[in-house]
Amino acid sequence: MLMWIANWAARHAPTPEKQAERAVDELRMELFRAEQQVLDAQLRAEYYRSRLIFLEDVTRKGIEAVSDQRKEQQDVSLPTRPGPRLTAAQ
Fold first, then answer.
1. Where do the domains of the chain lie?
2. Are 58 and 66 in contact (CB under 8 A)?
3. What is the residue-wise DSSP string for 3-71?
4. What DSSP state is assigned to residue 8?
5. Distance between the two ends of the chain, CA-based, in angstroms?
6. Which parts of the sequence are annotated with region: Disordered (predicted)?
């Protein structure tokens, strides 16, 4: 019985290789989380940057001029696509 325990302990002992293998998986997950936080922070920064630019424009030019300018940009950037045509069966 004592020999079995010794063999089991030898097989399941936390060797540096096993510890490194576990650490690699944990570090990969932490790296993924950190990268995700960076992406989220970049999105938040871009959102606040665009809000600030908009509010500065409103302060300088007035809401009407900024609104007209944004409408023109939307009209240019969104091409009109014909939707599905519904025809009556003849």
1. 41-72
2. yes
3. HHHHHHHHHHS--HHHHHHHHHHHHHHHHHHHHHHHHHHHHHHHHHHHHHHHHHHHHHH-HHHHHHHHH
4. H
5. 89
6. 65-90
Distance of CA 75 to the CA centre of its chain: 28
Which pLDDT score, from 0 to 100, does residue 87 have? 63
* Residues 25, 30, 35, 39, CA torsion sign: positive
CA 72/CA 86 separation, integer angstroms: 30
Higher-confidence residue of 36 and 2: namely 36
Q: Give pLDDT, residue 24.
A: 95
Alpha-carbon distance 15 to 55, whole Å?
60
Instruction: Give tens-digit pLDDT for 23-77.
Output: 999 999 999 999 999 999 999 999 999 999 999 999 999 988 888 887 887 777 6
R_g over Cα of the chain: 31
